[in-house]
Amino acid sequence: MEREFAAFKQMMETQASQTSDHKSTIKMLESRAVAELESIRSQLSALNDELKADLKDAKSFMANANQELEMARRNHGFELEDMRRKHRSELDDSEERRRKEVDRMRRENDETAEKVRKDFEAQIDKLLKMHTEELEEVQKKFKNEIEEERSKRTREALDLQTEFKLKLQSVGLEADTKDREVNSVKAELTDVKAELAREKTLKNGLQAQLTESTTLNLTLEASNKAMKEKINFLESDGQAQAQAFNDLHRRMQEAIEAAELANEKLRQEETLRRKLHNQVQELKGNIRVMCRVRPAHEDETEPAKIGFPDSDADSKEVAIQGPQTKSAMGNVTTSTYSYSFDRVFGPKAQNGEVFEEISQLVQSALDGYNVCIFCYGQTGSGKTHTMSSDDGMIPRATAQIYAEATRLEEKGWKYKMEGNFVEVYNETYNDLLGRSEDLDKKKLEVRHDPTKKQTTLENAVSVPLDSPSRVEEMLKTASKNRSVAATKANMRSSRSHSVFILKLVGENSVTGERSEGTLNLVDLAGSERLDHSKAEGARLKETQNINKSLSCLGDVINALGSAKEGAHIPYRNSKLTYLLQYSLGGNSKTLMFVMCSPLQAHLQETITSLKFATKVHNTHIGTAKKQTRA
Ligand SMILES: Nc1ncnc2c1ncn2[C@@H]1O[C@H](COP(=O)(O)OP(=O)(O)OP(=O)(O)O)[C@@H](O)[C@H]1O
Fold first, then answer.
1. Which of 10, 60, 95, 383 has its CA 20 to 30 A from that of 619?
2. According to its UniProt record, which protein family does this protein belong to (predicted)?
3. Which of 521, 501, 528 is nearest to 380 (CA)?
4. What gap in Å lies between CA 309 and CA 293, rounded to an integer?
5. Are 300 and 599 in contact (CB under 8 A)?
6. Residues 6+ away with beta carbon under 8 Å from 329
7. Is 561 annotated in some ligand binding site?
8. What pLDDT is recorded for position 621?
9. Closest Cα partner for 388 from 155, 593, 118?
10. Residue among 291, 345, 384 to mutate when testing ligand 1 (max atoms within 8 A of CB)
11. Which ipTM value was assigned to this complex?
């Protein structure tokens, strides 16, 4: 401990001596630093004095420099003013010079322009003079030409006037002749009607006579029986028996003769009836047009506005309310279009009622005329329903023909009847009565005999109409073939024409008369205008063929109506008109049904169909001739 204290004490004493050393060193350094700082301060104060003196010099230099600068600025301002003045006077001088120069140039220009203007004026005057002369010359020339033309035209107009007057006179004369003809035809019609009435009375009388004869026959038969009994009874009296027998024989002979006479009268009456019937048909016109509007189906909701103004009697008019049109002023109007035909059938008419109107034409075919009945109209307007449904015109016409032919047998007539059913599709003929596998394959040819005016269908199946059930069979075969065809081309039945042809050849063994008539019942392809742009390939061909054949039919009817005897009729332009060549025109009776849809959506097509039908209705075709041979 003591040692440690002694070490600590020594350490403390060493540190104390070190501290006093440090203090003396610091004192020495302090005095040295003070001496150095003192010398620096005296140096700085000397430098400060120097700098002050420099600053003073610099200030006086600055003042001098400012004075000089002020002087120089003033001098420069004077110089600038002098220069500006000098420049302005130079500018004035040059402006004066330029103005003078411009004046001079303007003067020179004016002089040159005046000179050029004068030159031009002189040239224009010269040209004007030249052109005026030329113009006068041309005017003179034209005047002469116009004068010449005017006198030529006046001469021509006078010629035309004279010609027109002559034509007018001849047309007047022709009109008078036509008037006379019409009056005579009217008188003839009245006569014919009166004759018909007389003949009807005669027929009734004859029928009464026949009934009387039949009664007489029966009476005679009864008395014959009584006589026989009497003879038996009077067996013993041979003379009285012979007398009674002779009596009876004579009376029977008388009765037979009376019956023969009655039969002969009946035959004569039939010949007369035919003549009168066909005279009446001719007077009705050889081309007739009837219109039929079908009823709307339950699911058809928007009907068109179709009216039948004279529906209380035998309706002949149909009135269609057209689509709405808006004028430039915004007024909405609707027009009503009226059409009249030989007969109009409304939606309530049944096929039976329609057939009544055509049954007389069917009779004409039996009497030896060529008859053509068409159904024209857009798809779905009721053509097939009218023509070949179960109670349509084909079954009804054939049933009537069969019944009539049977009835005429007792008047000595025997008929041979044969039916064909063909389809015209894409300008080729197909046999609807042939085998379905042959459809579109077997070539069917149409041959015409111009001397006999007869058409034959080579390679086509002809069905003899020997019983009414045959028609049913025929229609079934045709319908089967049409449905086979329909699977080949959708909607084919609407896109083809079907023609039912019934040939009727009659012979009267008693009178020696013979008649050959043909009844053609035609269901035409849908008449809607088909848009070429929307069709392509097979459909386009179909479309073109339908449009072509329908317009050809129109052309043929039109040509028949306007042509003179022997003029060219374009039958060859389509397969349909070619086939019907001898059943269209002077030697035939034609009836066209225009079928109409009752719907608003079909209004435009309905109007187009009615317009076409009106055109046909206005056509007058020459008198039909009966095909008879002695
Ligand atoms: N007078 C009518 N009474 C009742 N239904 C009718 C009548 N006319 C047509 N129809 C019906 O209207 C529909 C269309 O008629 P239809 O097939 O006869 O027309 P279309 O003109 O022959 O058509 P497509 O050209 O397609 O053969 C059928 O369902 C038919 O039964």
1. 383
2. Belongs to the TRAFAC class myosin-kinesin ATPase superfamily. Kinesin family. KIN-14 subfamily.
3. 528
4. 14
5. yes
6. none
7. no
8. 59
9. 593
10. 384
11. 0.97
Other Cβ atoms closer than 10 A to 315: 18
Distance 297 CA to ligand 1 centre (A): 10
Instruction: Name the residue range of residue 474's domain.
Output: 287-303+348-629
Please, what is the average pLDDT of the chain? 82
CA–CA separation, 297 and 279 (whole Å): 41
Pairing mode, if any, of strands 343-345 and 445-449? unpaired
Taking a C-beta distance cutoff of 8 angstroms, is the pair 587, 593 a contact?
Answer: no
Which residue type does 120 have?
A: F
Ligand 1, atom 9, residue with closest C-alpha: 382
Number of domains, the chain: 1
Provide CB contacts within 8 A for 302, sequence distance 6+.
Answer: 599, 600, 601
Which helix (H) or strand (E) covers residue 372, if one does?
Answer: strand 370-376
pLDDT attached to residue 628: 47
Query: What averages of pLDDT result for each successive group of 10 residues across the chain (630 residues)?
Result: 85 88 89 89 90 90 90 89 90 91 90 87 86 84 82 78 70 65 67 68 67 68 69 60 72 75 70 63 70 93 90 86 82 88 94 91 88 92 92 91 88 91 91 86 87 87 85 86 69 83 91 91 84 66 84 87 74 93 81 94 92 85 48
Ligand 1 surroundings by CB, under 6 angstroms? 294-295, 377, 379-385, 493-494, 526, 595
Question: Which token pair is 24?
Answer: 């003396």
Residue 621 token pair: 């075709």
Nearest CA to ligand 1 atom 31: 385
Summarize pLDDT for 164-220 with one digit per residue, the tens. 677 676 666 666 656 666 666 676 676 667 666 766 666 676 666 666 766 666 766
Asked whether residue 312 is domain-assigned, the answer is: no
Q: How far apart are CA 408 and CA 222, in angstroms?
A: 30
Decide: 521 and 394 in contact? Cβ < 8 Å.
yes
CA distances to 363, 365, 506 from 368, in Å: 9, 5, 8
**Concatenated DSSP letters of 244-269:** HHHHHHHHHHHHHHHHHHHHHHHHHH
Q: Which of 374, 385, 387 to mutate to test the pocket of ligand 1 (most atoms within 8 A of CB)?
A: 385
What is the distance between the alpha carbons of residues 435 and 438, in angstroms, rounded to a whole number?
5
Task: Judge whether 72 lies within some domain.
Answer: no
Q: Give kind and range of the element (H or E) at residue 29.
A: helix 2-233
pLDDT at 524: 93
Select from 328, 292, 227, 628 the least CA-distant residue to 452: 628
Burial of 484 (0-12, 13-18, 19+ CB in 10 A): middle
Question: What pLDDT digit, counting tens, does each position of 101-136 carry?
Answer: 999 999 998 898 898 888 888 888 888 888 888 888
Q: Tokens 């030896």 belong to which residue?
A: 368
144 located within any domain: no
**CATH number for the domain that contains residue 291:** 3.40.850.10
Is 482 within the bounds of a domain? yes
